[in-house]
Structures are given as structure tokens and as C-alpha cells.
Structures
1.
Amino acid sequence: MTSLLDSTKDRILAAAEELFARTGVARTSLRAITALARVNLAAVNYHFGSKEGLVEEVYRRRLEPLNRARLLNLERLERRARKPSLEDVLEAFMSPVAQLARDPAQGGPTVMRLLGQTHAEAEEPFKAWFAGEYKRVLERYHAALCRTLPGIPPEDVRWRLQFLVGALTYPVAERQLVELVSGEAMDPADVNQVVERLLPFVAAGFRVPPGTPKPARRATRRRPKVTRNS
Amino acid sequence: MTSLLDSTKDRILAAAEELFARTGVARTSLRAITALARVNLAAVNYHFGSKEGLVEEVYRRRLEPLNRARLLNLERLERRARKPSLEDVLEAFMSPVAQLARDPAQGGPTVMRLLGQTHAEAEEPFKAWFAGEYKRVLERYHAALCRTLPGIPPEDVRWRLQFLVGALTYPVAERQLVELVSGEAMDPADVNQVVERLLPFVAAGFRVPPGTPKPARRATRRRPKVTRNS
DNA sequence: CCTACCATTAAACGGTTGTTTCAAACAGGC
DNA sequence: GCCTGTTTGAAACAACCGTTTAATGGTAGG
């Protein structure tokens, strides 16, 4: 049995999560983790087999509930109404992110920085698992979005879903950068704001009629190009 | 004088760029770089002072032209018409990305993966420089966007600009993940598609009237339901 | 020719990495 | 109690890291 109080395993997970989110996986040594967790160095290899094993567990612990909530939300939504609104579907996808960030027991705001670093970090086998999980969710939402948006070709919906993921991931992940650029500190509670502000933004984007390949350029651009200094 | 043919310096830069984009900076050793470049290990420290120096040069070489093109595009746009259209401004911001990705001499598609890894990687001093450069560009575009979008509060414009950056960065950066999820390989030439498809998407988002704080919540979907405080 | 000077080479440096070892401390079942 | 299996502790392991050194090759200027 592992956990009534903060077991060794839990403390390692918490410390690793904190450091991974702050510095990235590759730059975080096991010694830094075990020092922060006040745990012996060997405990990591004992409990998780290897650093890779620890990394997988840290991410899995957060990503699994997130994706499960997303799928559950959509399921519940479709059971309630055969034709949910676009906004409902989008909120079902985005709100679990805010929920996670709000609950310190589930990682709090730290977990969002983790998500942003997911892709750059991680070794091959874990990356494959992660992509597989994510694919299931995105496929499911793609189908749901196509249903609420007849008239938009599925391929367009797929692209726009990618845009949504990017717009959602980037601001919460690159918090440090966002702060520097905006001059304003981003409160952890502002993850709600991200969702609230992003929802109408992407909703409008999803509804754009397809197939207008080029937005009309006012007057033909006479001299198209740049000062090539190559 | 360094460069008539592929000098040592150039080969190091090319190899480093390739490996940084593929594996990330932290996971890429100088030995891997010099092996790929078929160059002596010490050459890196000789030409760039340190690994950090090399990292900075690799990124600077690509980011500087990108940001310069963005600023130049906007300048030229505003000189031509005092009130450029929203689409024009957005294209001025996004098109240099596609241009870079199209030109192998400027890094080609590889450079996009670099951009995506920018934030997670990099040490403090370089990060500060990068954020400063980026901030200048974003501030400039923020002002331009506010001018084309009177009626949208500047703070909303700022958020939406963040969304744009995220939506633009993510799909081109996480190419591997996108491929896995979409099942389709993303051709380097498709960076054009990203821009073409993203432009109308975000344009619609930017035009959304502000101040609709909550999209209708769960039970009542029909009613606009504009209750909630700000 | 010789002398500076820059570029390149091979080898080694100290430090940190993830991982392992082995003994000690601990738990609960009989 | 004693015993079995699990968990922790301090120390050591080999491998790799970024960096430095010292000697070399090559080339332009005097």
C-alpha cells in the first residue's frame, strides 16, 4: 500500500511535476527531484524503474483525467441533445483544462505548463502513447464538430480543430513568455479567462464558410515582394 | 572571411539546427552536432564560445529575418493605406512564416520545428533577448490591429493576438504529432495551407464583438443568457 | 624563408548524469 | 520471538556532458 499520507512515491511525483513544468524534463536531474522531495536518490529507480518511467507516470497522471473528462463531457452532451450547439461542444473540450488548473489537488496551474512542454520533451515510446490517447479524443470531437457544422468539409474542421488546440495550449503553456510580452502577469485563475475569451473566438472561426481560398485583397498587390537581402 | 563554400561554421550551424529541431536543444550534445557536421568537437567552442553561444546563433539567424519581415510588411502596408484591412494585417504577420518554410536557403521546413521548441528550450539570457524581440513585433501589431478594429477593447485584441500566435505556432511546430493525429502527413509545402486556412479562421475570431462574457451554459442553450458579471 | 596568425586536430579535464549495489531498517504473518 | 519481503540509505559505477589544453597544419605578409 502506498498512500495514506504523503508517501515517497507521491512526493517524488509532486517534485518531478514541479520541476518538469519549470525547467523541462531534459534539464531536470533525478538528484534535483529527490532533493526537493527529500527522498533518497535510489527511490526513483526503485519505484518507477527509470527516469523515463517517472516521466511517463507524471504525465499520465494528469493527461488521463483530462482526456477522460473531455470524452465524458461530450458523451453527456450528446445524450442530452442530439444536436448540441457548437459552443457546447467547444466548451466540453476546453473546460476540463480550466478545471484542472483550478484544482490544486489535480495539479493546479502547474499542470498547464506541463502540457505545453509535452511535445518537445518525452522519448519515443511515451510519445506514441500520448499521441494515441490524444488522437482518440480529437477523432471523437472531430466527428461531433462535423455534426454541428454541416456544410463545413471535414478536412476544414480538422484544420480548425488543430488551430483550437494550438490557441488553447500556447497561452497557458508559455506563461512566462506571455507575461513578458503582455507586460501583465497571468494569474493562474486567468486560465478561466483563457477559456472564456477563446471560446467565442474559435466559435466564430469554426463557422466561417469554407472554400474562400483567398480573402479578397484590396487592390492587386503591385510589387509583391520583399527586400531580399540573402 | 568565412563563407564562400560550406565553412566549418556553416556546417556546424546547419547540423545544430537540424538536431535542435528534431530532438531539442537539451537532448542534443555537441558531439552529435560535430559528428553530423563532420567537424572537430572543439570547433564549436572555438567559433561560438560555448554551446549557449551556438544556440543563440542558431535561433538568431532565423528569428531576426522573420521578425524583420513582419515589421517591414506592416510598415509597407500602412504606408500604402492608412486603414489596411484586418486580413491585410494578419497576412503581413503570418506570411513571413510560410515564406521562411518555403525557402530551403533560409532553413526550409526545419526552421518551423525550431520555432515551436523555442520556448521550452533556451537559457535565461537568450530567452530574455528573444522575448524582447518578439515583444516589439507584437506591440507593433497590437497597435495596428486595434486601429483596424475600433470597438474591440485593446485587451481583447491582445488576447486574440496570443490565440493567433498559438494557432500559428502549434500546427507547424508539432508536425510529428499533427501527422499522428490527422493520419495525414503534412507536406512542407502545406505550411502555405496553414496560413491560407488560418487567416479566415482568426479573422472571424478577431471581429467577434467583445463583452459577451459567458456563452450560454448547460441547461438553457436557447436563451442568450447574458447574466454573469464581467 | 620566416614569422605571425587563424583554423583544426586529438586528447584529456572535471563535473554531472542515470543507474546499480549492498547493507540496514522496516513492516506484518506465523 | 523470528522470518520474509519490501522500502530506504549512503556510496560507488560507468558513461556522457561541455569545456580546455597543447600541438599541428596552412597561409598571407614581411
2.
Amino acid sequence: MNARPHVTLEEVARSARVSLATASRVLNGTTNVRSDLRDRVVSAASELAYTPNAHAQALAGGSQPTVGVICHDVSDPYFAAIARGVMRVAGDNGLLVMLASTFRDPHKEIEYVSMLRAQRASAILLIGSGFEDRHWEQAMAAELDPYRRGGGQVAVVSRHRSLKVDTVQPENREGAAALAKALLKLGHRRFAVLAGPRSMTTVNDRLSGFSDELAAKGVELTEDDIVEAAFTRDGGYAAVQEMLTRKTKPTCVFAVTDVMAIGALTALREAGISVPGEMSLAGFDDVPVVRDLTPPLTTVALPLEELGERAMELAIKGARGGRSRILRLSGEVVLRGSTAPPKK
Amino acid sequence: MNARPHVTLEEVARSARVSLATASRVLNGTTNVRSDLRDRVVSAASELAYTPNAHAQALAGGSQPTVGVICHDVSDPYFAAIARGVMRVAGDNGLLVMLASTFRDPHKEIEYVSMLRAQRASAILLIGSGFEDRHWEQAMAAELDPYRRGGGQVAVVSRHRSLKVDTVQPENREGAAALAKALLKLGHRRFAVLAGPRSMTTVNDRLSGFSDELAAKGVELTEDDIVEAAFTRDGGYAAVQEMLTRKTKPTCVFAVTDVMAIGALTALREAGISVPGEMSLAGFDDVPVVRDLTPPLTTVALPLEELGERAMELAIKGARGGRSRILRLSGEVVLRGSTAPPKK
DNA sequence: AGTGTGCCTGAAAGCGCTTGCAGAATGCGC
DNA sequence: GCGCATTCTGCAAGCGCTTTCAGGCACACT
């Protein structure tokens, strides 16, 4: 049981009394091999518990069955749901997924791309809002461009601006607008928005989609009505507290993310404000758990797993003509118990 | 921009007019190199956007900076939380994580280990209950043994029986017992348990810890009080529906998993049974979201992220003496709003 | 001046595998 | 029974990198 090096193809070949080449061919099923030789090789391999060295295979020309996925935080239900879709498609195609969590550190994101590049991953998926930072964009492009030039596939979910690569894009703006419309229809006229950092494209799109629709109906959303906070459950929680200190008195709160809405709901409950009695609350994404909240959350349902699946598929299929493809997936407003007409 | 092969070290060396060896040494900082040569190499590398081929490096003897993690489903908040801990430690140590989701398919689990073995991952982490199946155990051992013999590290979270490897084990039995004690103290005497498949060690431990403690206090738990269902949110939901058709009339329900408890809570609400007014409900794990439910869920809090961190640390540090190490982490009962004394 | 002593640098040997190419073995037709 | 078309099989050339080993050079010492 002492640590000894791995079993190599050569040992298998020797033990089966055939050449390296033949052993390789048997194990890869490339060419026909006389059946008795084939049997000898197969049984030798299983006896020695042989596993090919994927590195050697990759080096020798075989293509690499791994793809890289970079997201902000696996434990965020939004990414978790997308990752689930990614995993399924990857699994179905016999691909191994290298998943990296950046914990929202732009620097790390680039570093991971570099590592994935070194691994010669056949594709890289970037999931979640990018950073709107000139410097960062350049550094990212400096990694991605050579990667793609070398034949690597890149696909992104939910970040449009920076990179011209295959993209799966949820219709944030339209979804938010539809939500605004539904909320107006319920009778609300005074809103507050719990937003994440404005520099994130996702936040921006949802926010402007929402406020533009409001404006179109003659309802103004001022800076005072917008509370900026971290893009997390705790951010939503804090945002409500902040909102309550302001003079604005909304009848309806829109959290740009379900995860933030979850924190918001708890903060409201703790503040003794009943939902939807005294205040309506809506989110965005339709993360699985929000239907189990009390009250269940009104939100814009995004096909999260599908986002992941489609992105993976884009990456696997590879780009044809050169133009990058953009796949837009629309969300759907789902009215649940957390919204109701405002109190008179 | 046509697809051309990757830039190699040789090109860098040529462009810097030094030998391959020197270029390699500069880029790895192994030996001192005259500073003018070093500069030439560095700038050549960056100009060509050179990235070392990790496969070649691995083949040539450098060790591989990747670890493999296998879990049932990334989108389950339980795994997501653990994965978060894993990711953090991995990131801090410059490791790339290959994450695989088996979707609870035993066959796939073994297949993934095999792929990870081929990748020469320096460590493999198995997260979540194993399968109690003689056949499966053998097949798994057949993969793992050669892997470890070849110097691979293996660590598991939360599965004791099958494999004698480094283990991080939450104290399921003790936690469940402590929960039982707390629930008894509230005055409950008639319980129901929503369990997952009995073949999972986790289910077994929690169930028996709970019922043994009950028995010790003279409260019997019969088979009729135990509802078996899938280990998911929907399983919990279905289990409550099933429970309500039975003649037993518990005052308190214990779901062996928070995720199941979430489904259970919704099912109870839809059945018009108030929690904790008419029925108390408790879970296990303390997944982040349960504190945001209404009412917040009473549960046994496990240090989920820490489970992941510790497992990763075990794997990184590697086994010394040969004996496998077992790290036990205890849970703590957290009483929240979902439990109350039973109605008289 | 002769010889050590260090420090760099480059040539070359692999790491384990795939695959083009040529040679061996087999089968067929005449 | 001979020649040739067909298969198989084995040799050997890499894939891109690390690392050992020896050679080169400058400098200091006797």
C-alpha cells in the first residue's frame, strides 16, 4: 500500500504482451484489434486498475473533456439554480466541470480564467453580471482573446456590455417593465426600489426597465426612492432598514433580486410591517425557495436552469460563422401573496 | 484571428533568444537567471500572451493544482453551503475545483471518481450521504483504492460506513437527540418524523438519535409516525400530505432536513394548519434561508461552511500516519418560531 | 599564470499517450 | 503455389514542459 506511481499504459501493454500502440488502440476503440489481443489488454487493464492519464492524453492530441464555469458564489440560490442546468448538460455530454467561485472579486475572476486557460478547458462559462470597469474589461479581454484564438469557446450568462461572445441574456429590462405594469395595475403609485450596486449591468437594466415603465405611466421614481445595498440577502435586509429611515412612504417595494427580497421580507416582518397588508413586496428571478416564504413572493420568473443549459449548449456547439450569438430568454411576472392592492 | 495552436514555451524562448530551459526557469522562478535574460523572457511571454500548458506541466512532473468535489446536487442549499466553504479554502490555496453533481445517481458518482482519477486531481472530496449498497461500495472502493495508492487524497463529508478515509462527520445522532430533548421539554409527546430514504446513513442517524432519545423518556415512535419521502423540498411537501392522511395526530413534526422542512411548512400552510399554533415543526442543518421563513424554523444548526472547509483542509494537508482521521463537528439546537408548547 | 569555486546556461532525457507509417500476417484469386 | 490486396501490429515521432547534468565563464586564490 505504499505510494507508488500510477499504473501506465506501458505496464498494461507489457502485462498483456502487446505493444503500447495496440494497447492504446484497444482502450480507445480506434482500430480493430484481433480479439484475443483485445481480451488480453482489457483484462490486464482492469486487473491493474489502470486509468489513463488525462494529461498525457490531452498532450498527445486527444481533446480535453473539461469545461470551466466561473460564478460569483455557488451558495447563492440564483447561481446554484443556473449551475444545476449547466451541470446537467455537462453531465449528459460527458464533460467534467471546473467550477470556480470568485466571491465577487474581479481580480480572482481573471485569475481563474487564466487557470482555466492553462488547463486548456474546451470552454469557459462566465455566469453573472460583469464588472463595469474599463481596467477590468481590458484585463479580461487580454485573457479571453488569446484563449478564443486558440480555439476556446466562451459563453456568458447575463452580462452584455463588455465582451462580444456568445451570450444568454435574460430580459431584465422587459421583465422589470412588465412587473411595474402589473404593480401599477394593482393600484400602487408610490414605490421604493432596493437595488444592488449600480455598476452591475443587471441592476441597471432592471432598475431602468422598472422606472421607465413607471415614468411612462406618469409615476416618478426619484433617487430617494432607490436604496442601494449589497447584492445579497443581508443587503436586502439592510436596505429595508435604510428605507424606513427615509421620509418616503411607498406602498410597494421592488427588490431587484429575490435574494434581496428574502432579506427584505424578514426586515419588514421584524419592523412589524405586514406584507402585503401594509406594504407589497416583489422580487426578481423566481429562485425556488420564494414560493415557500410567507407570504409567497411575487416576482419575475426566469427560467434559471434553462439559462445554464443554454449557455452550456452554446459553448459545446461552438460558434459557427464567427459572429457571437445572443440568446434572449424572457421572464414572466408571477403574482403571489406578497403583493396586493395598497391600503386606501 | 484564425484558430492557431497555442503559444508554447518554445516560441517564447526563441523570441527571447534563450533556451527552453532558461525560459522555463524564469517563469517558474526556480533558479536565478541573469536579469537581462529574465527581462527578455518575461516581456516575450507577455507579448505573446503565453500561458503554460497545464497538462504538459503536470506530465513533466509538476504537481496538479486541481481537486475534485462530488456532491449530489449543487442547487440544494445544504450542498451549496458546504461547497462555499470548500471553494473558499480551495481559492485560498490556489486550487482549481472540479465540481460534479451526481443528481443522486450512484453510477454517476463512480464515473466521476474515475474521471477525476484520470485528471490526476490531487484530492477528491465526496460530499453527502453515501449509498448503502454492497455492490456500490465495492465499485467505489475499486476506484478509490488505486487512486489513494497512487498518492491521491480522499476526504468525505457526512458518510461514515463505507470507506475508511478522512472524514468530517456532523454529529447527526447527538444533534437529533438534543433536538428531541428540547422538543420534549416544550411539552410535546406525540411526534411525527419526515424522513428521507432509510438507506442513507444521515437519515438513519438522525432518525435513530431522535427516537432513541424519545424512547429514553418513555415516548414511543412507531413506524406509523415515520413518513418516508424524497430527500428534497418536494419530498417534505408530499410527506406532510401523506402524514395528514394517517390516523396519527402529532403535535410536533421533525423533518430530518431543513430542505424537507421547507416543503413541509408550505404543505402545512396550504392545509390550513397553523405553525406553531396547531403544529410545531423542526428541521435539521440550519440552511441559511430557514431564518427567513415565517415562522423562522427551529432546527439543529450545523456549521455547514465549516464542514466544507475542514474537509478541504484534510484533503490538502494529506494523511500522515496512514490512519484515517475523523473530525466530528457538533450541531446546536436553535429554537425559533416554528416550535411552541402544544395546545392543551 | 594555474587552478579552484560558484553561478549560469543549454542540451537532452524523459513524463504517458496518440497516431502516421511501414512491416508482418493473413486471405484471396489465378 | 505465387502475387497482391487487406488487415492488423509495432516502431517511433512527437505533444509542451521540467529537470538533471555537464559545460562555460568570471572571479578569486595560491
